[in-house]
């Protein structure tokens, strides 16, 4: 890093550390704190008095010290003012507007020359954009920011827009329909102590009537093509025949179907056809897994609950279908969720006895709803991983501070098109790819990891930038090192989150993933210096949040029956119990088949549990292979039949993790026909 850059970083750090002001005009926000101190203070010091003069000229003592101790005679300085008798520095916290004015200091009953001016201002509110539509012109709307503070308008490209004055206060801009629903506008309020930006207003929300017409028109075109293009190709299609009227020389007349005809007749007909087809597919399975979630539409103020089904057909091919999206009215209580969920199952004629598991989020109302409905359920693994990551990031103050500084730097570029253009120019000068810094969002998984990663990638670029331009804060060399180590620790979490969030993710991956994470976090390396706290907290969080996975049959049976994992990834005290439980289940099923009656509650193990995943992330390959190659515990011999068949299966080497477990069982279902053993 250039010497000038290092000097700027040093100055920045010193400024942040001292904070006190000597002989300056200072502006602060309500709730902030400020410190003033004299330039020099000569010993011996027997008394110090700080005085405050408000805008009306009234002078009061803020705080005083002498041989008898400290005294704060004025009420507005009590409990929020401290004095360092050695340096003469006064510090006032929780500032209010009344603290504004001129401060002077008397040392040894002699008034000093320095004057300290303090202005305390209210923070600007978060603005809300008002929308005013123009009658007779649906392609233009007025956006109004009705505030007295300095107003800055920007569009989605970051460009600052020219606004017009709005009476009695504020500014407005004219937004025109461009055809891009992702275009948006923001209003930023700014004063000397704070800045706030409104929520973006998107074009798709400003011109709903126009976009509704575009969507309906496109849908009608698609439906017309779908309905009237003959289902044949190439030589199979007969030559086109002209209508009878055209063949006879008369002028043909065509009636284009109306919008009402399409929405009232053809769309319901198409819906019924697809629903009938899905119904026929559902009849081929004896067990189903479901995914459900609740979300709010951004287009209309309604809450929806979804129902997506997954099952395995007779050829061990995974099938899935989105069955329902139903409005959830009123409070999202567990009783309301149970009622709507049971209605959706009844609509599709699926009894509860065929529900293998419901994958849900970690909200308490959803957990209680599934328990009250008597349905087995599992939480979202990706969400649970992110909760553990959140605990780890907050555990170590130095890392949390580095993340906060990084967030300020990214926010600076996010709110300044000029700053971003300068950053891109430097990227080009250094022959680096043009990349934007990633902003972390609390509700977006892995976003803090991506933010730190993007900052580290642009470390050299930012070093050049700070030598020429200002930044709201600076990262020290120690903080850069902490960020790099933090990214290395979080990398396995990011990879596993992506894998378990994929469309073909399976429950059989959970126990192996937790085992690998625990082993990685337990390993001591030379790079642990400075990040031991976050590593230990992550380890404790993973163990706590996944403490029951090896005792949950929905997890351990699917893991044992996954040929990539089998019993290799269990801890020593749970593997025998898991295998014993599975053998007992298989023996019960064998006895039921021998009697010629299948228990209604019993479900075929191949279809019930085998929902495996494709592969695990590359950075974890070494640990996965290490565990897979370890010798399993000696199997305890049980009775003949299904138990022996299971022991034979477990005694074979695991399949490569790249293989599909469903394909394995599709090929080996005859060789491992456990049910008929």
Report on this structure.
With 677 residues, the chain is of the alpha+beta class. It folds into 4 domains: 3-121, Immunoglobulins (Immunoglobulin-like, Sandwich); 130-209, Sandwich (Immunoglobulin-like), CATH 2.60.40; 271-379, ATPase, nucleotide binding domain (Nucleotidyltransferase, domain 5, 2-Layer Sandwich); 447-471 and 478-676, no CATH class. 40% of the residues lie in helices and 18% in strands. The protein contains 21 helices and 25 strands. Strands 1, 3, 4, 5, 8, 9 and 10 form a 7-stranded mixed β-sheet that branches. Strands 20, 21, 22, 23, 24 and 25 form a 6-stranded mixed β-sheet that branches. Strands 13, 14, 17, 18 and 19 form a 5-stranded antiparallel β-sheet that branches. A hairpin with a 5-residue loop joins strand 15 (164-165) and strand 16. Helix 13 runs antiparallel to helix 14. The chain is globular, with a radius of gyration of 34 Å. The termini are far apart.
Helix and strand topology:
Elements: H1 3-18, E1 25-29, E2 34-36, E3 48-53, E4 59-66, E5 69-71, E6 81-83, E7 90-92, E8 101-107, E9 110-111, E10 116-121, E11 130-134, E12 137-145, E13 150-155, E14 160-161, E15 164-165, E16 171-176, E17 184-190, E18 195-197, E19 201-202, H2 203-206, H3 208-228, H4 244-247, H5 259-282, E20 288-291, E21 294-296, E22 303-312, E23 318-327, H6 334-347, E24 355-359, H7 364-373, E25 377-378, H8 381-395, H9 397-414, H10 417-429, H11 447-457, H12 459-468, H13 477-500, H14 510-522, H15 532-545, H16 553-560, H17 575-594, H18 605-609, H19 621-629, H20 642-651, H21 661-668
Parallel strand pairs: 1-10, 20-24, 24-25
Antiparallel strand pairs: 2-7, 3-4, 3-8, 4-5, 6-7, 8-9, 8-10, 11-12, 12-16, 13-14, 13-17, 15-16, 17-18, 17-19, 20-22, 21-22, 22-23
Helix pairs in contact: 1-12, 6-7, 8-13, 8-15, 9-11, 9-13, 10-12, 11-13, 13-14, 14-15, 16-17
């Amino acid at each position: 890093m250039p010497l000038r850059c290092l000097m700027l970083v040093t100055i920045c750090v010193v400024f942040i550390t001292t904070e006190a002001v000597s002989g300056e005009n200072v502006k602060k926000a309500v709730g902030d704190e400020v410190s003033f101190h004299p330039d020099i203070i000569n010993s011996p010091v027997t008394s110090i008095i700080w005085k405050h003069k408000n805008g009306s000229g009234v002078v009061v003592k803020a705080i005083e010290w002498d041989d008898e101790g400290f005294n704060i005679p004025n009420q507005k300085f009590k409990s929020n003012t401290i004095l360092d008798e050695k340096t003469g520095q006064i510090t006032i916290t929780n500032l209010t507007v009344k603290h504004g004015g001129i401060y002077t200091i008397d040392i040894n009953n002699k008034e000093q020359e320095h004057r300290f001016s303090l202005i305390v201002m209210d923070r600007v509110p978060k603005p809300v954009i008002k929308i005013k539509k123009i009658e007779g012109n649906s392609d233009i709307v007025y956006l109004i920011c009705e505030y007295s503070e300095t107003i800055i308008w920007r569009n989605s490209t970051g460009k600052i827009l020219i606004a017009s004055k709005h009476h009695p206060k504020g500014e407005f801009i004219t937004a025109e329909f461009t055809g891009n629903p992702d275009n948006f506008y923001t209003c930023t309020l700014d004063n000397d102590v704070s800045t706030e930006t409104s929520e973006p207003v998107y074009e798709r929300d400003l011109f709903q009537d126009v976009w509704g017409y575009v969507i309906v028109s496109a849908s009608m075109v698609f439906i017309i093509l779908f309905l009237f293009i003959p289902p044949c190709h190439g030589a199979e299609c007969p030559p086109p025949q002209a209508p009878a009227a055209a063949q006879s020389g008369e002028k043909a007349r065509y009636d284009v179907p109306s919008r009402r005809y399409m929405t009232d007749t053809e769309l319901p007909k198409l819906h019924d056809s697809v629903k009938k087809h899905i119904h026929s597919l559902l009849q081929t399975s004896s067990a189903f897994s479901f995914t459900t979630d609740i979300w709010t539409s951004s287009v209309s103020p309604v809450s929806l609950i979804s129902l997506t089904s997954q099952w395995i057909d007779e050829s061990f091919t995974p099938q899935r279908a989105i069955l329902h999206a139903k409005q959830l009215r009123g409070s999202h209580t567990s009783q309301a969720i149970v009622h709507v969920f049971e209605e959706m199952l009844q609509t599709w004629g699926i009894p509860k006895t065929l529900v293998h598991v419901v994958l849900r989020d970690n909200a308490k109302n959803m957990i209680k709803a599934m328990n009250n409905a008597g349905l087995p359920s599992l939480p979202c693994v990706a969400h649970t991983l992110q909760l553990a990551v959140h605990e780890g990031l907050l555990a170590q103050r130095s890392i949390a501070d580095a993340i906060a500084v990084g967030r300020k730097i990214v926010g600076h570029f996010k709110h300044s098109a000029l700053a971003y253009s300068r950053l891109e120019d430097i990227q080009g000068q250094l022959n680096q790819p043009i990349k934007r810094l990633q902003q972390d969002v609390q509700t977006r998984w892995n976003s803090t990891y991506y933010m730190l990663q993007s900052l580290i990638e642009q470390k050299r670029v930012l070093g050049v930038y700070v030598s020429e331009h200002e930044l709201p804060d600076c990262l020290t060399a120690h903080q850069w090192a902490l960020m790099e180590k933090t990214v290395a620790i979080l990398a396995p979490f990011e990879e596993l989150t992506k894998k378990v969030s994929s469309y073909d993710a399976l429950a059989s991956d959970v126990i192996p993933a937790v085992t690998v994470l625990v082993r990685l976090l337990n390993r001591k390396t030379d790079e642990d210096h400075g990040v031991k706290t976050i590593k230990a907290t992550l380890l404790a969080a993973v163990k706590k949040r996944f403490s029951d996975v090896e005792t949950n049959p929905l997890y351990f049976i699917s893991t044992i029956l996954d040929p990539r994992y089998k019993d290799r990834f269990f801890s020593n005290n749970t593997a025998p119990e898991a295998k014993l439980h599975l053998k007992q289940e298989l023996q019960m099923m064998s006895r039921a088949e021998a009697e010629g009656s299948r228990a209604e509650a019993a479900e075929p193990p191949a279809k019930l549990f085998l929902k495996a995943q494709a592969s695990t992330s590359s950075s974890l390959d070494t640990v996965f292979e290490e565990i897979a190659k370890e010798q399993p515990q000696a199997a305890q011999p049980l009775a003949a039949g299904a138990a022996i068949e299971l022991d034979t299966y477990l005694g074979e080497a695991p399949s490569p993790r790249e293989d599909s477990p469903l394909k394995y069982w599709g090929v080996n279902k005859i060789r491992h026909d456990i049910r008929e053993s």
